[in-house]
Amino acid sequence: MSEQVNHPSHYQKNGKECIDCMVELFGLKATCIFCLTNAYKYMYRAGNKDGNSFEQDMNKCKWYIEWAAKHIESTDNGLMCMLEKVSEMYEEIANET
User: Fold this and answer.
1) Is the Cβ–Cβ distance between 48 and 33 less than 8 Å?
2) What is the mean pLDDT of residues 19-26?
3) pLDDT at 46 over 90
4) Residue 17: beta bridge partners?
5) What is the pLDDT of residue 42?
6) I need a labelling partner for 31 at 20 to 30 A (CA). Which of 21, 40, 47, 82 fits?
7) pLDDT tens column, 65-79
8) Is residue 45 within a helix (H) or strand (E), and if so which, with residue range?
9) Residue 1 pLDDT class (50, 70, 90 cuts)
10) Which 8-state DSSP code applies to residue 75?
11) Average pLDDT, integer, range 58-67
């Protein structure tokens, strides 16, 4: 399962990962926003998409949260609030199982 969550081959092209290209094209802030909203999407659908288990969706969610947390500047209060909210939601859902 880890290859479907951490750096899957279908998100790599010409030796670069899609997320790195997104930072180059759209900037770090926009990519962090994408990661947090995408994390929410994985939580929302966790276990409800054919072929994706609850665990896999939650692992993908966690990956996006961790990526954003690593890259968000602590001076950006709006993104820090988004990160806190999504992280709290993740913890609540992950602890329910």
Assistant:
1) no
2) 95
3) yes
4) 12
5) 96
6) 47
7) 999 999 998 889 999
8) helix 28-45
9) very low
10) T
11) 96
Distance CA 34, CA 30 (A): 6
Amino acid identity for residue 89 in this structure:
M
Query: pTM of the entire structure?
Result: 0.86
Say how many residues make up the chain: 97
> b/e string for 59-68 if b means 16 or more Cβ within 10 A?
bbbbbbbebb
Among all chains, which residue has been given the structure tokens 């926009």?
30
CA-based nearest residue to 1, from 53, 47, 49, 48: 53
CA distance 87 to 63: 11
Which secondary-structure segment (H or E) carries 13?
Answer: strand 12-13
Q: Which amino acid is at 63?
A: W
